[in-house]
Amino acid sequence: MDTLIATVEPNHTVKVPTSLAVGEQVLIMPVPSITALLNDAARRARFAATRKALQEALAKDSATVSLSNQEIVSLVKQARRATRPS
């Protein structure tokens, strides 16, 4: 299943690729604009803190050890918890 991003047109329609069948159900949710994301100082700080926590966690492990996908996901979750506002 592909993730598609579309914009609501002035007449409130959303154009989708022809690969989607007529009548197919889709999820529509608003997402912030890239400008809004970049201007959100708190979000940027959390992202920077998460990135730093990931770098620190990876630095603890030997560079010769290959991490599995599950271990990487675990490190990301750990970093997110470490930077979550209390």
Overall description:
The longest helix is centred in the middle third of the chain and has 20 residues, at 41-60. Helix content is 48%, strand content 0%. By secondary structure, the protein is mainly alpha-helical. It contains 3 helices and no strands.
How do the helices and strands line up, and which of them pair or pack?
Blueprint: H1 34-39, H2 41-60, H3 69-83
Write a brief caption for the model.
The protein is 48% helix and 0% strand.
End-to-end span in angstroms?
36 Å
Order of helices and strands: HHH
Major sheet: none
Beta strand %: under 5%
Q: Output mean pLDDT.
A: 82
- Which segments are poorly predicted (pLDDT under 50) over 5 or more consecutive residues? none
Class of secondary structure makeup: mainly alpha
Note the overall shape. flat
**What level of helicity do the residues show?**
40-55%
Count up the helices.
3
What is Rg? 19 Å
Number of strands: 0
Using brief descriptors, characterize the structure shown:
86 residues, mainly alpha, 3 helices, 0% strand
